[in-house]
Every structure is written in structure tokens, then in C-alpha cells.
Amino acid sequence: RVLIVDFGSQVTQLIARRVREAGVYCEIHPFNRVTVESIRAFDPKGVILSGGPASVTEAGSPRAPQGLFDMGLPILGICYGQQTMCEQLGGKVEPGHHREFGRARLRLKEQIYATGDCDLFAGIYEPGSEPEIDVWMSHGDRVTELPPGFRTIATSVGAPFAAIANDDRRLYGVQFHPEVVHTPGGKQLLSNFVHKIAGCAGDWTMKAFKAQEIAKVRAQVGKGRVICGLSGGVDSSVVAALLHEAIGDQLTCVFVDTGFMRTGESEQVVSVFRDRFNIKLVHKDASALFLSKLAGLTDPEKKRKIIGATFIDVFEEEARAVGGADFLAQGTLYPDVIESVSFTGGPSVTIKSHHNVGGLPERMNMKLVEPLRELFKDEVRVLGRELGLPDDMVGRHPFPGPGLAIRVPGQPLTQENLDILRKADAIYLDEIRKAGLYDQIWQAFAVLLPVRTVGVMGDSRSYDYACALRAVTSTDGMTADFFPFDMAFIGRVANRIINEVKGINRVTYDITSKPPGTIEWE
Ligand code: XMP
């Protein structure tokens, strides 16, 4: 395993992703929590120091524990990590006059290039070909004097020590970011560090993870009873399937059906989990309750809050009805767990109150089981396949907890407008799947607009709803861009919706990015 010490870079998580892709388990720990003792306890084979927004030249800026450098562990410093390593080992860092942001050319030293004698760069360039490779830089400061025992491996225009090594002590530093996709050889470089230099085996696979997690769950739960909220989304589905394999009938799943699901989704949850997996499943149809609680409301935040509170009430009631449980299973993922290093402080502004079941375990006096705490989203998908969940469930686009209720903005929800939206949405997704575009899109959905417009259908006048189609690309939902369908495709979808969905006579395509828009309309 490998330890990543986080100095607050925006892309620290990507380092972890690349290391795991190389088949090596790793964790991210914030610099201010890392001590020589905590490193010893974690027992890594190598340590990576991340980048970060601070400047080594400023008093009070973050440092690695000085004792780390005497532990005999291989270390790779990236950007700020390189700078602090150099400074802590007796080198010099100065504010750069050539700031480098974005693409840069890295020039390997003649000797490295000719003899390939640096393990870190093995396989990244063709010996005998051009001694320059593309890398991605983002730094103001730079190393200006190497600590004793180090040599220069590569330079760039803005960084005379763009890659450095102390081969005897297995200490390496790079000024560029090997973890981002804009550094084409970066994945190989990180793989070289964890395999060739740190000597990790590279046998961390999902199969191994599954077996390990099942054993952990059994040890944690014992003979206790576990309850799991199932929504049909990827995370809760994978949790349910994993727990079922671990503890069988000690698990009860509760599916609170809000009535805000898409076409066929509720049926799929029941058929997959109850019929195929044979999981004890309570399917509570609470659609009438949710609709009555939201009657007449249009304010997005009020709607979200009521849906969240109603969900918890219903879940709690159903959990009591099956006799309660000792544990609540949740699909918490690694990005929610990582304690990010914040340099700005202060609470951030609430844009939307997200729907979650926080607070429930305390209220119901249950302990948490969170078997996905160490995984990234796409690792969860791999685990889901490993557990035998259907592909269309595991590869599904994200779907918000409040469901279709937040896709009917500006007018009170009714069974009628939800049904209209459901039909339009199903046609849109059907066409996207048929065109083979589903996996290129982060999320696609229809929104029913609160306006009626005039149309002409046959020889008659129509006066019906307009609907908007949304499709975005994104890697994490934090930023997004609209998906560039070709016009013929959009035209085909619009035509089908207007012809097949009674109640809609106009279709528009939403081309707003995030920011300034959000992905959902409310
Ligand atoms: P926004 O609209 O904030 O959405 O750009 C970002 C991502 O979050 C999803 N989303 C939610 N997911 N509960 C969820 O579990 C919610 O209340 C919720 N609201 C938005 C949204 O679909 C997108 O993927």
C-alpha cells in the first residue's frame, strides 16, 4: 500500500485513482494529520507528497513530518510536494519568474535519455527518439538549488529541476503533475514509482477487495441485523448486493418508492433484488403521501426539504415495522470521506439542499455499515459487475434522490404532469441508447416546463406544455458542459416526443454549462 500526503491540491484524488489503477491500494491523509507514528501504523511501501496551493517560501506553510525522510521509505514529491521535500532536505525554493501553467515540454537529461538509467521514467520515452515529452505544469515557485545527494533528471523552460532524484535514498521529485491526463506518460510514471521503486505487487483487484470487504462486514455485524435503504441507484444497489452476499438474511432492504422514479425503475428494483437476488425487500409505495405533502408547492428548496423529511419518516416507519435493526448500511463513497484540506475556511454557500439520510442513524440508534467507503465511483461500478448486478443498473447515469419532483419546475406536482414527464424522458433515453451515446453522457433527462404554448397539429390548434431536454458531460458533477448532439438527433427526439406524448407540443434543448447553471433545473 501507498500513502498519499495531501497538501490541498485540487487533483490529489487523481493521484489515488492512478495508483489504484496500477493495482495498488492507497489512501489520502491530510498533511496536518500525518505523523511519523501514523505513517508507521499505516505501514506503506511508498509515500507520495501531493501538490498544494501554499508557497514553501512563506512562513507557516505546510510541511511533511521531518522524520518521514529518515524512515527509509521511497518518496515521490509532486509540485508542492517536491518543493517542500527539497526545502526540508536542505535545498532551496524561490518564487519563480517564469510561472508555468498548462502544457510544457520536459527535456530529459542527456544521460537519462541515452542510457535510461532512471526507473521513474522507464517506458515513458523511446530511447534514441526525441528527448522531450509533454507534461502539465501548474506552479509559481520552483526549486533553485538541489539538496545534497540529488541529481537532475529533466528540465523545462520554467523549472531547471523539473524532475530530480536521489537514487540511493529512493527520493524523487517532479515539478509537473503526472496524475492528470494532460501528462501522457504520467500514468506510467506513477506506476513506475509504486512498482519498480516502492516494490508494490499490483495485485489489488476488485475480486480481492470484495472478499476482504465481505470478511470485514461479517466481523463488524456478527449476528446483528442490518437495514439498507435501496433506491435503484448504483451505490445503494451495490451495497445491498454485497451485504446480501456477506450476511444473507440478516439484511433487510427498504425501498421507499416516492413515485418520482422514471419509467420501469421501481419494477426493476423489485425484480432484481427480490426475484433474482432473493433479498428480503420491503417495497413501500409512498407516492400518494409524497404528492399530498408537496401539494401546491413550487419553491425548490421547500420541495427538497419536504421530500427529505418525508423520506426519513417513511423509512423509519418501515424499519420499525420489520422489527428494527442494529446497523444501517449506507453507500458512502471515498470522495465523501476524504477530509479535504481547506485553506479558505468558512462554510460554503448552500446552492441546493441535497437529499440524504444524514441524521437517521442517531435518531434510530443504529450503527453504520459503509462497505464502499474506500472506493471511487467507477470502482463501485466494477464491484457491482463483480457481484453480478445487471449492466444497465451498474452503468446507469446518476439520478437525484428527489427524482422527477425536481424536474417539474414552476408548477405544483400532479400525477398528470409527472406522467407526461415520464413518457418524454423515456423516449429521450431510449433514443440516446439506440444511438449508442448513453455512455458518453454523464446525465440526460427531460424537464417539464411550466408554460403552455400554441401549436398546430393536423388542422387543429394545440395548447400544451413545452419540455426541455438536458444532457451534460462531466467527470464529477461539479462542473459540466452540454452534450453536443447533432441537430438531426435532437430533431428526431423532438419529433417522437411531440407525436407520442399527449400534453407536449414543443421541445427545446438546454445548452447551459455548469457553472453558471446547475445540472438539474432546481
Ligand atoms: P446540480 O443540479 O447541483 O447536480 O448541478 C449535481 C449532481 O447532483 C445530482 N443531484 C442530487 N443527487 N440528491 C442526490 O443524490 C439530491 O438531492 C440531488 N440534487 C442534485 C444531480 O442529478 C447531478 O448529478
Automatic annotation (TrEMBL):
<protein>
    <recommendedName>
        <fullName>GMP synthase [glutamine-hydrolyzing]</fullName>
        <ecNumber>6.3.5.2</ecNumber>
    </recommendedName>
</protein>
<dbReference type="InterPro" id="IPR004739">
    <property type="entry name" value="GMP_synth_GATase"/>
</dbReference>
<dbReference type="InterPro" id="IPR029062">
    <property type="entry name" value="Class_I_gatase-like"/>
</dbReference>
<comment type="subunit">
    <text>Homodimer.</text>
</comment>
<feature type="active site">
    <location>
        <position position="177"/>
    </location>
</feature>
<dbReference type="Pfam" id="PF00117">
    <property type="entry name" value="GATase"/>
</dbReference>
<feature type="domain" description="GMPS ATP-PPase">
    <location>
        <begin position="204"/>
        <end position="396"/>
    </location>
</feature>
<feature type="binding site">
    <location>
        <begin position="231"/>
        <end position="237"/>
    </location>
    <ligand>
        <name>ATP</name>
    </ligand>
</feature>
<dbReference type="InterPro" id="IPR022310">
    <property type="entry name" value="NAD/GMP_synthase"/>
</dbReference>
<keyword id="KW-0658">Purine biosynthesis</keyword>
<keyword id="KW-0315">Glutamine amidotransferase</keyword>
<dbReference type="InterPro" id="IPR017926">
    <property type="entry name" value="GATASE"/>
</dbReference>
<keyword id="KW-0436">Ligase</keyword>
<dbReference type="GO" id="GO:0005524">
    <property type="term" value="F:ATP binding"/>
</dbReference>
<dbReference type="Pfam" id="PF00958">
    <property type="entry name" value="GMP_synt_C"/>
</dbReference>
<keyword id="KW-0067">ATP-binding</keyword>
<dbReference type="InterPro" id="IPR014729">
    <property type="entry name" value="Rossmann-like_a/b/a_fold"/>
</dbReference>
<keyword id="KW-0547">Nucleotide-binding</keyword>
<dbReference type="GO" id="GO:0005829">
    <property type="term" value="C:cytosol"/>
</dbReference>
<dbReference type="InterPro" id="IPR001674">
    <property type="entry name" value="GMP_synth_C"/>
</dbReference>
<dbReference type="GO" id="GO:0003921">
    <property type="term" value="F:GMP synthase activity"/>
</dbReference>
<feature type="active site">
    <location>
        <position position="179"/>
    </location>
</feature>
<feature type="active site" description="Nucleophile">
    <location>
        <position position="79"/>
    </location>
</feature>
<dbReference type="InterPro" id="IPR022955">
    <property type="entry name" value="GMP_synthase"/>
</dbReference>
<keyword id="KW-0332">GMP biosynthesis</keyword>
<comment type="pathway">
    <text>Purine metabolism; GMP biosynthesis; GMP from XMP (L-Gln route): step 1/1.</text>
</comment>
<comment type="function">
    <text>Catalyzes the synthesis of GMP from XMP.</text>
</comment>
<dbReference type="InterPro" id="IPR025777">
    <property type="entry name" value="GMPS_ATP_PPase_dom"/>
</dbReference>
<dbReference type="Pfam" id="PF02540">
    <property type="entry name" value="NAD_synthase"/>
</dbReference>
